[in-house]
């Protein structure tokens, strides 16, 4: 998959104008089932027209530049993870447009000129609610109106699960609640967080449950604190595991607010410090709790481990 970074008004000439594209355009945080419908349409149209498939996404999140949010922005899929998923889907090209103040001021007409016509886009696919240009004044009706027959347009209708729209907002809500099964249903896959194995306090090994201490990629959305059945990708192989997200209240000073992500990997003996890994979150087993001693903690971890084993056994047999 070819990735091209574009910045307005400079660097627009990085695109290969001799190549024609069927383009899916949107922010696509999460690349959830709704996004996938847009992207698959673009891939389908590329095949129909005998041209290359492409996705246009934006970085960073518009609210960071426009100041629409007071809280820190966390991505369901940070950029590199988003690119990895798009490659797995089968997208041939990705245009990553740097979202700047200048870019945000573009009129809808200029957006179409620079980012559709000048890139030799022959078909545009987007969701029914996609907006573009200054103050989001551009919509898919305008995209059609200004085409003059130079490119085709597909507007993908609202994708729903139950009565509600499949959205990144809903997925974030489920992650905040620790409802990993509902999040996975909307994503079309288990929620995953990439990270690095770093040194922790090594207390797990002293009580018979060694853990990999995970430092998540900056900007990742970490689910609600608690204990989870997870899978972890280590050296290109997935392993079952139990993950604790929280503040380790049994051992830590309550004023220490450093969140930790620790995975006890089942049937695993290797030393993996410094390895890049990926944690797939499947089911929340329980909330984090404080225990009155090591023995009661060990007994609970054993129960958590057995619950995770049973969960994955059931999952494999379903």
Automatic annotation (TrEMBL):
What keywords were assigned to this record?
ATP-binding, FAD, Flavoprotein, FMN, Kinase, Multifunctional enzyme, Nucleotide-binding, Nucleotidyltransferase, Transferase
Q: Where is the Riboflavin kinase domain?
A: 186-313
The EC code for this enzyme is 2.7.1.26, 2.7.7.2
Q: What broad class of enzyme is this?
A: transferase
Name the Pfam families for this protein: FAD_syn, Flavokinase
Q: Which GO terms describe its molecular function?
A: ATP binding; FMN adenylyltransferase activity; riboflavin kinase activity
Output the Gene3D superfamilies linked to this UniProt entry: HUPs, Riboflavin kinase-like
Which GO BP annotation is one of this protein's? FAD biosynthetic process
Q: Which InterPro entries match?
A: FAD_synthase (IPR015864), Riboflavin_kinase (IPR023468), Riboflavin_kinase_bac (IPR002606), Riboflavin_kinase_bac/euk (IPR015865), Riboflavin_kinase_dom_sf (IPR023465), Rossmann-like_a/b/a_fold (IPR014729)
State whether keyword Kinase applies: yes
Catalytic activity annotation: FMN + ATP + H(+) = FAD + diphosphate; riboflavin + ATP = FMN + ADP + H(+)
The pathway entry for this protein reads as:
Cofactor biosynthesis; FMN biosynthesis; FMN from riboflavin (ATP route): step 1/1; Cofactor biosynthesis; FAD biosynthesis; FAD from FMN: step 1/1
Give the record's family classification: Belongs to the ribF family.
Fetch the NCBIfam families from UniProt. PRK05627.1-3, PRK05627.1-5, ribF
- Protein name in UniProt: Riboflavin biosynthesis protein
